[in-house]
Design a protein that fits this description.
Length: 350
């Protein structure tokens, strides 16, 4: 084939290829592609009620709490951070006047141990009418005829004994008085005194004999062990005397804060705290003076507002009042002078 013929064939082939491509020609308005703008219109946002948002946040927090193990997933970590941010944002005080809500008063308490004779006040918030309530308590207790007045722990020591022995007997009577009526404690102390209630004599007494002497005080078996252990410590570390600080007293077997503060008052004549037993705890809560779950919480709350010069009196007043009027079961609210001031008494039908 000649070169000219080859060239002709190539040109024919290229022409065929070009003619097979179709180029659309737009001639009319109808054929123009139309753009649907509606799809770009912003859709109205769905606003969830704040309660639902809070529930969602709570649920998220709960989920995190349940899975206490730290997640290794980056996504999970990011979600946690977002949740925290949301929470922080929600807790920020709103600057808008319309959404501003009244903040709940939060009482800040300091767990400050009382060590001196003039401790600092922790809080100034006092319950309403507390002075009137106290005056009524004094009025109802004016005869001083409750068991605590004649057979309380401060009435159990032998006044004729040496100061060290008086202090030791004061401590023992407090140890026996836990979960025990004053009458039973007082009778047990009289038997111990007759037996010889000194550090050396109690150490020389067998556990069995000591048990027989103190029965029927509550938990007498445990108390025998505590008394023996504590008496050994007094002999070895305190030259047979009673420690002179709340801290050292609390280190003794079977001695807690309540007992330590009462011992400081009875044995050493120092007021270091309010002795809160079951009566003081119960009545303080009924009167609305405190809102606490344990006697120790009650002690701290009372010491937060009650003037220091009343700390000694209030224990004695309330213990006797609890023995005679504000009984654990069926308190005699109808005859109580505080009935109209006491939240518990107000509920009792007249
Ligand atoms: S009104 Fe009743 S509960 Fe209140 S202090 Fe008096 S006896 Fe106790």
């Amino acid at each position: 084939m000649s070169r000219a013929k080859v060239f002709k064939l190539i040109m024919q082939s290229q022409r065929k290829t070009r003619s097979s491509k179709v180029i659309p020609v737009v001639n009319s308005e109808e054929s123009k592609p139309t753009l649907d703008l509606s799809q770009f219109k912003s859709k109205p946002k769905k606003t969830l009620p704040s309660s639902v948002i809070k529930q969602q946040i709570k649920k998220e927090e709960g989920d995190i709490d349940i899975e206490s193990k730290p997640s290794t997933s980056k996504t999970a970590k990011a979600e946690q951070v977002v949740t925290k941010k949301e929470k922080i944002i929600e807790n920020k005080p709103s600057t808008s006047k319309t959404t501003k809500t009244k903040r709940e008063h939060i009482k800040v308490e300091y767990d400050e141990e009382v060590t001196g004779t003039s401790p600092k006040k922790i809080s100034k918030s006092m319950p309403n009418n507390w002075e009137k309530v106290l005056e009524n308590l004094r009025q109802m207790r004016k005869n001083f005829d409750a068991p605590v007045d004649t057979m309380g722990c401060d009435k159990c020591s032998d006044d004729a004994a040496s100061p060290e022995v008086i202090r030791y007997q004061a401590l023992l009577s407090l140890m026996l008085s836990s979960q025990t009526k004053d009458q039973v404690t007082h009778a047990a102390m009289l038997r111990l005194r007759e037996h010889g209630c000194t550090v050396d004599n109690i150490l020389a007494t067998s556990d069995e004999d000591l048990g027989k002497l103190i029965i029927p005080v509550g938990f007498w078996k445990s108390k025998v062990k505590y008394i023996k252990k504590t008496t050994e410590i007094l002999k070895q570390q305190y030259n047979g005397d009673v420690p002179r600080t709340v801290e050292d007293l609390c280190k003794l077997s079977g001695v807690g804060p309540k007992m330590a503060h009462l011992c400081m008052k009875t044995a050493w004549g120092q007021i270091t705290g309010i002795g809160v037993d079951t009566h003081v705890h119960r009545i303080s809560n009924r009167l609305g003076w405190v809102n606490s779950k344990t006697p120790e919480e009650t002690r701290k709350a009372l010491e937060g507002w009650l003037p220091f010069d009343l700390w000694s009196e209030v224990n004695h007043l309330l213990v006797g009042f609890g023995q005679q009027v504000c009984l654990p079961i069926k308190p005699q609210c109808l005859s109580c002078l505080n009935r109209d001031l006491c939240p518990y008494g107000k509920k009792i039908k007249k």
